Amino acid sequence: MSGGALSAEAAARGMPRASVGRLRSNADLIFAAIGLVALMIGVLTLTALIVDLAVRGLPRLDLQFLTSFPSRRPAQAGILSAWVGTALVMLVTAVVTIPLGIAAAIYLEEYAPKNRLTAVIEVNVSNLAGVPSIIYGLLALGLFVYLLGLGRSILTAGLTLALLVLPIIIVATREALRAVPPTVREAAYALGATRWRVIADHLLPYSSGGIATGVIIALSRAIGETAPLITIGALTFIAFLPAPPVRPEFPFVSFQWLFDPFTVLPIQMFNWVSRPGTDFLPNAAAAGLVLILMTIAMNLTAIYIRIRVRRKVKW
Amino acid sequence: MSHRTTGPLAAAATIAAMLIHQAPAAAQATITIDGSSTVFPIAEAVAEEFQRANRNVRVTVGISGTGGGFKKFCRGETQMQNASRPILQAEMEECRRAGVRYVELPIAFDAITVVVSPRNRFVECLTVAELRRVWEPAAQGRITNWNQVRQGFPDARLTLYGPGADSGTFDYFTEAVVGRAKASRGDYTASEDDNVLVQGVARDPNALGYIPFSYVASHADTLRTVAVDGGRGCVRPSAETVEDGTYSPLSRPLFLYVNLQALDRPEVRGIAEFYLSPAGRNLIREVRYVPLPEQAYEIGLRRIRERIAGTGYGGQPEVGMPIVEVLRHDPRE
Questions:
Q1: pLDDT at residue A241 greater than cutoff 90
Q2: Which fold has domain B111-243?
Q3: CB-based contacts of B12: which residues, under 8 Å, 6+ apart?
Q4: What ipTM was reported for this prediction?
Q5: Whole-angstrom Cα distance, residue B117 to residue A275?
Q6: Is this structure's pTM higher than 0.95?
């Protein structure tokens, strides 16, 4: 920034010319310091937690741990049913919530008429993002388990978490769509493109980085949820896997696993932490590490998508 | 590009279409157990060993608490119910309305244990009357110092730890000490997680708390147990004093309720009998509970064999009655 621009701005704010430089650089410095402290509080806390978890859990984390079912003996216990359960529930959640969330956001942002009803819907979507997760659990218990008769199953859990994180995806997608410059839309419309063509060929590709971020924040929240899953009746001890998705006879795929009982990593951890004695604590820490690794893996996928999109999009 | 964005949508539609065709199929020999968290370690050990011996059977164990578990059990959603107290009148009514009949099987003893910090040097034994003075609802905000508990105790703030109101341990303790289930003062640190109570009491030299015996056994170095005088002198909880009935009134039986109709299934009957077998008894000891007298298991096995439904308790939480005494009565529905 040139000195001329600086002083012009200062004059516009009615400040005396001489003190502007010092005041500015002081404020700059102070704010940078506050920002750094704020960042460090978050980063250091997270680091401390992960290091603590790693120190306790890493010695326990081996192939046996990943391929064994829970047991009353800490050294034989494992998280096979828990991590498979978590992975399958997340799969259902992702398949349901991503298309629904993105579609809802596109409608609200690009199609919905700007009237009072839309405004009410918008406020509600934002508010839903702040509703405690246990409320979603109660809703799911009434709706999915009893009314629709889906049982205390992987499908119910996936749908529950999908509802829970849907608002997050909608809000993030709308932000991403809004970040696409209006000139892009106008140029496309000027060339005679239909609304859908503009969305499919321009808006979605350009905003997919932001959408991916929203999706990952949403799924990262879902993967750690315990309360709504306990409400719908996730089990604590389960020493078998859901039915396999493929089978030898026609039609070769099976969706029986959607209706099978399940457990997930956070519930397994909670169970180990709340046992008498300290024997199971290393197991809980190791399960926590696996959960964090699964979250990081999802994050890396999002970062990869974002980098690829950035490389392609040039305005 | 439009291809890529419609991909997930198409997948979701396909799955939805498949689901409509695929109604929830009958589960393959699955036994569902739910209920008390206190009984969970026993159920888990039994389920683990039973599945090891019977590869084609799937057993699931949930923790909904005794009360929450009975709700599911009486709706017929679960086949077996772990309970840290006998079934109550209201729950019997619920089961009856839904047409669910059940066999009541006492499986083990637990002892509710009064604990203090190892740094507390003045409490050795408390009478039931003293415990009542501390825990009754009227004590709220009034009994706040150790010297109010007994003359001669030091002038020190009394801090209390105990399980929350959803716990069977809470129900039993209040019944046994105060005289009415769920009647308790509210100004104490309550947690459904017994480890929180262990930590709290261990750190605070002025603390007094009550927790299940299995938690004390695994924290022997961080907690000190207090003997309880139920009218026949001070008795410390141990496997022996619980088994011979002298640790009274705070030792309690734990129960398994089995859906009578499910008992027709060989795998359900198999696991129920496994609970009561000598092998099951070893598992009970391994997870730090106290097995019942031999006779109790024989009566339990007879109830399974002859399909004797109902409870021996009549819907009232009974305290301090020896288990063999209770088992002698015929169960009623």
A1: no
A2: D-Maltodextrin-Binding Protein; domain 2 (3.40.190)
A3: A95, A96, A99
A4: 0.74
A5: 20
A6: no
